[in-house]
Write a structure and sequence with these properties.
- The chain is of the alpha+beta class.
- It has 4 helices and 9 strands.
- The protein has a 5-stranded mixed sheet. Strands 1-2-3-4 form a 4-stranded antiparallel sheet, with helices on one face.
- It is elongated, with a radius of gyration of 20 Å.
- The two termini are about 30 Å apart.
- The model has no long low-confidence stretch (mean pLDDT about 80).
Length: about 170
C-alpha cells in the first residue's frame, strides 16, 4: 500500500484567541510603561506567564492525514510524533457536528463522553471507534473537503456522514 495521503488537513486555534491572550500582557506592559509610579509592586511573573500561554496556543496545530495505512494524527506539543491508527484497529468512523464546549468542556486535548478529543476550531469532529480502547475524536476544519475525499476513496471502513452535517 502506498503511504500517499488521500486526505490531509492542518488546523489551529483561531487567530483571535492568540491575539486576545497576547494583547493582555502587551496592554499591561504599555500601561506600566506610561505610568512608572505603579510599576514597583507589579508581579512581572504573571505577565510573562500570560505571554507564554498566548505563544503556546499559537504553536498548537492538529494534523490529520488519512491514507491506505490508516488515520494518522499529530498534535504538537502534546503529540510531537505522528500517531497512526491502522485500519485493522478501527471499528467505525463518523463525521459529527458537535459543540466542543458541551461535549468536551472546551477546546484542546480533552476527554468527554465521546472519548479523547483533539480539538482546535470549528464544530466538526471525526469520531473514531477503535476495536480496542477509548474512542478518539479529531477536529475536521474543512468538512466539505473531507466529504468530497470520502466519495473518491475506498477505505476499509465506511464512514458515517449524516445528511445534515453541513
Amino acid at each position: 500500500m502506498s503511504n500517499q495521503p488521500q486526505y490531509s488537513e492542518k488546523s489551529r486555534f483561531p487567530q483571535w484567541v492568540f491575539w486576545l491572550i497576547i494583547s493582555i500582557p502587551i496592554s499591561i506592559y504599555a500601561y506600566l510603561y506610561f505610568h512608572p509610579e505603579e510599576r514597583e509592586p507589579f508581579d512581572w511573573i504573571g505577565l510573562l506567564i500570560a505571554a507564554a500561554v498566548g505563544i503556546f496556543l499559537y504553536y498548537i496545530k492538529l494534523t490529520v492525514t488519512i491514507n491506505p495505512n490508516g488515520i494518522a494524527y499529530q498534535y504538537p506539543p502534546f503529540h510531537n510524533k505522528s500517531n497512526l491508527l491502522p485500519w485493522e484497529k478501527i471499528k467505525s468512523i463518523e463525521l459529527m457536528k458537535i459543540n466542543p464546549l458541551r461535549e468536551f468542556g472546551g477546546w484542546g486535548l480533552r476527554y468527554g463522553r465521546l472519548g479523547a478529543a483533539y480539538t482546535t476550531r470549528g464544530r466538526y469532529i471525526l469520531h473514531i471507534e477503535k476495536t480496542e480502547g477509548q474512542a478518539i475524536n479529531l477536529t475536521i476544519a474543512q468538512p466539505e473537503e473531507f466529504i468530497n475525499a470520502i466519495a473518491q476513496q475506498s477505505w476499509p471502513v465506511t464512514p458515517k456522514i449524516p445528511e445534515n452535517v453541513i
